[in-house]
Amino acid sequence: MMVRQAHHIPLVSVIVPVHQEDRHLVKNLTQLQGDPRIEVIVVEAEKVGVANRAYQMNLGACQARGQLLVFLHVDTLIHPKDLWITYQRLKEDPSFVGGVFRFTLDTQSPKARLLELGVLLRQQIFHLPYGDQAIFIRRSRFEAMGGYPEVPLLEDVLFIQKMKKQGKLFFCSKPAITSVRRWERHGYLKTTVVNLATMILWKSGVSLERLHTFRRRFFS
Q1: Given 71, 106, 124, 128, which is the most exposed site by the fewest CB atoms within 10 A?
Q2: What is the pLDDT of residues 56-110, one digit of tens each?
C-alpha cells in the first residue's frame, strides 16, 4: 500500500484500489497529489495479498485521515476542484451521507453518450449509481456502517444501499471521467447486456459467487 500524504491533516482522502493496472495510475495521482489538502492512498492487490476490491478499499479507509473518503477506480479521473465542491456541499448540509459524481466516458463516441444517458436514467429512476462514479462518504458514516461488504462483486451496489439507509445522497453534476477501454475491449452492447443480466440474476436470488463465475466467462 502506498500513501501520498498531505503536508498537514488532509480534508479529503482518495482511496484507489489497484490490480495489475499501474499504467492507468499515474495520470490519476498527478491531478490530485498537487493539492496539500488531499491525501491519496493506493492499495495494490498484489502487495496486500488479496485481489478483492472491497477489501482493498476498506484497508485504505483504515489508513485515511481525511474527513471525506472518496473511492476512486484507477481508470477514473476526478478534478481536485470538483472534490471541494462535494466537500463544501456536505459541510453545508449534514443530511447528506455522501454521494457520487456524474458518469462520463473519455471519448466522443455517440455510443458513449447513449451509455451515459442510460446511467443517468438509472440513477434518477432507481437512485442506484455504481462505483465508477467515484463514491464519496463522510468518514464517520463509513465507520458507522462498517465499510464495504467484502464480497466478490457488486460491493458498490450493496454499499450504496447501506448509504441510502443512513440518509440522502448528493448526486454531483461534475464528471468522474472513466476510461472507455473496457467497453471498447468487450464491446458496448456485450458489456451492457452482461451488466444488466448480472443485476437481474442477483435480484432473482443467484449468489454473488455464481455471478462472479458467470461474469468471468465473458470478461476473462
Answers
A1: 124
A2: 999 999 999 999 999 999 889 999 999 999 999 999 999 999 999 999 999 999 9
3-state secondary structure 128-167: CCCHHHCEEEEHHHHHHHCCCCCCCCCHHHHHHHHHHHHC
Which backbone phi and psi does 104 adopt, to 5 degrees?
A: -145, 140
What are the cell numbers at 162? 447501506
Burial 178-194 (b: 16+ CB within 10 A, else e): bbbeebeeeebeebbeb
Rounded Cα–Cα distance for residues 118 and 197 (Å): 15
CA pair distance 116, 112, nearest whole angstrom: 6
* pLDDT at residue 3 in the model: 56
The C-alpha cell that represents 21 in the structure block: 493496472
> Which cell goes with 126?
432507481
CB-facing half-sphere around the CA of 39: CA atoms within 13 A: 21
- Strands of 135-138's sheet in order across: 2-4, 38-44, 12-18, 68-71, 135-138, 96-105, 168-178, 76-77
